[in-house]
Every structure is written in structure tokens, then in C-alpha cells.
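Form 7-S
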Amino acid sequence: MKEFVISEAQVETAVLVGLITPTQDERKTNEYLDELAFLAETAGAVVVKRFMQKLPMANSVTYVGKGKLEEIKEYITSEAEEEREIGMVIFDDELSAKQIRNIEAELKVKILDRTSLILDIFAMRAQTANAKTQVELAQYKYMLPRLQRLWTHLERQGGGSGSGKGGSVGLRGPGETQLEMDRRIILNRMSLLKERLIEIDKQKATQRKNRGRLIRVALVGYTNVGKSTMMNLLSKSDVFAENKLFATLDTTVRKVIIDNLPFLLSDTVGFIRKLPTDLVDSFKSTLDEVREADLLLHVVDISHPGFEEQIEVVNKTLADIGGAGKPVILIFNKIDAYTYIEKAPDDLTPRTKENLTLDELMKTWMAKMEDSCLFISARERTNIDELKKVVYQRVKELHVQKYPYNDFLYQDYEV
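Output:
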């Protein structure tokens, strides 16, 4: 049985593969591969090459076409001859067991997809028993339908039809037997993990009930937008923050006091495109903080070229976990890193979002949101006083509605 124990991350070289489809143009595919490269870097790999192919849809047998697979194989072989070993090939979409088996047979290197890469990072980041249990369950859910490829070496031993034709005497069916054993072991382990998560859910629910009559505010957003930095800023705590994807896996809850108003602030796991449903299901107890929050602070990296799509991804994930419909303050972070492309005076083509200055961008659809939309730099501490003022006002309104007879608001010593 494969044990999910993560050792020190080895630096390996990786090749990325993505598809250009009718629903995903070349620009978007490049953007997705940029993110995949960032994921690979977070996991400890170095990306040396990218391959893209234009197809109506992914090939059900090998993801890419036969010619493109041959091109990737030739590149891997040529690099090996130059003593530059390619450690793995990472595909931007989730692969089926059949696709992984066929691609491995052709390329003879380790094959990963976006989901397995995310799971690997989650396993690396998991610190508490809760996070480790959730990650392990997600890994087994991913592994179960792909069990067969772990036993492909048994195919060479025979395992005939049972009629005596084409099989080896005494070696019929060992692969199937081993598969069934492993499947049973995994299913039993998954049942145990689910029971453990139910217990953790009960403990977390008890903790939430014991937090007193305080408004709950949750930081949500795409991964690596600066939620943990903002958490540290508002709560004056020291939550781990790093310029890598999924720096935070465990939900951190801190008591925050702005002026005379106390409330609870939680930092949650970041969302990402193509986040597998199994992973969302496994992190149910973590995402309960979002579901039970009174107010969401949706943090957005305005310096990212695809920030509007990231907003959509977060909103969709919130809807999927039952967190939609709550009061939201949209916080555009990293204004210090915002850049734009200035158009030449003789360029008469229409201006796009990439040509807008930050001031011009702030006057677009964002201007209609009034104080439900803020622009800050958590790192440079720009507009933080305005952020605190708006959060204070919104939390106070919710507090008065939810606890109209609460008389324990702190005395404002600054007055």
C-alpha cells in the first residue's frame, strides 16, 4: 500500500502541457500555465518547457494528440542525452487513469495533473491533525479510481481469460486480487478518516458556539492574494504569510478590536481554478468558517491580469459551499504592484483593461460599489485606516442587528 508521507521536497525539472480549446483561448491557456508553473514551483519543481496544442477537446486516450505526444517525447529524450533529466510532465487538467497509463507508457517519466499537484502542495502545507486528515482523505478519493495503474507491472505476468488460452498457469488474476485488496483497504481507511472528520466537525462547532456574542468576519479570496498579510495587519498577530500558493491551509481565528468594537476574524484556505470537488468536500470543516461568517472580506490581487476571472472563481466556490448571499466587502489589494501598458499616441486601436491606469480602473464598474469596494496595499500599509473605518462601520451595523441588547462593547479609550 502506498503511504502518503511527504518527505523533503526534491528539486525536479518539469514540463507543462496545456490545451487551447474553443472555450479556452491561447491567452487564457498561457495564464493557466503560468499558474501551473507557480504551483510546480511551490511544490519544489523547476519548469523548463511548456507545450500547448489546439484541440476541440482533450484526447480521451492521451490528452494531447499523437503528434504532440511524440514531440514531448523527443524533447525529453534530447534533454536526457544532454544529461538534463526531465523529472516529470504536468498536465493542466485532471487526467483519467487510462490517460495517465497511456502517457506514462509513452513518455517513461512521472506524470502529474493539476489535481495531484495541488494535493501534493496541500500535503506539504498541512500542519494540524485536522488539515492532515482532510488532505489524506482527498488523496485517497483521488487515488481510488486510478488504482489500476499502480499494478500495471502485474499485466506482464499473464492473468489469462480463465479458459486456458493466452494465460500463464498459476498466474491468472493476481492483479485483480491485489486491486480488490487495495480498494478494500482504501475504502476502510476513508471510512475511518470520515469518522475522524465528523469528530473534528463537532469539536469545531463547539468551539464556534463558545466564542461568545461576537460578529464573525472571514477573509476569502483566490490563493496568494494577501489574505494572511491582511490578517496579520488587522489582528496584530503572526500568521504564516508567503508569496507561494496555499501558504495557509488551516483556518486561523483571531479576536480583533477596532476602536471599541471586538469581532472575530478568520483566515481561510485560498481558492483556485479547477479546484476538484473532492478537495472542497474534504475541507468542509475548514470552510464552515466561511459558511457561518456574518461578513466576508473578499480580497483580490488587483495586480494580477486575470483578477476579474479570479473574482468569478471565488464567487462560484462560495456558491458551491453555501457561502453566497452574505454581506461582502471587496478589497483590492496590491495596488503598489499594479502596472498598465501605456498606448502609443499613434495607436488608434481601442483601449483594453491592460491600458487603464489604476485611477481609470477605479472609475469603472468598481465605482458603483461605493464603500463595498476598497483599494489597499497590505504590504505598504496604504489606505489601511480607510479599511478599518469601513470594516468597523459594517461590523457595528451587523452587531446591533444581531445583538441589540448587548452592552459589552469596549470603552473607546481613544475618545
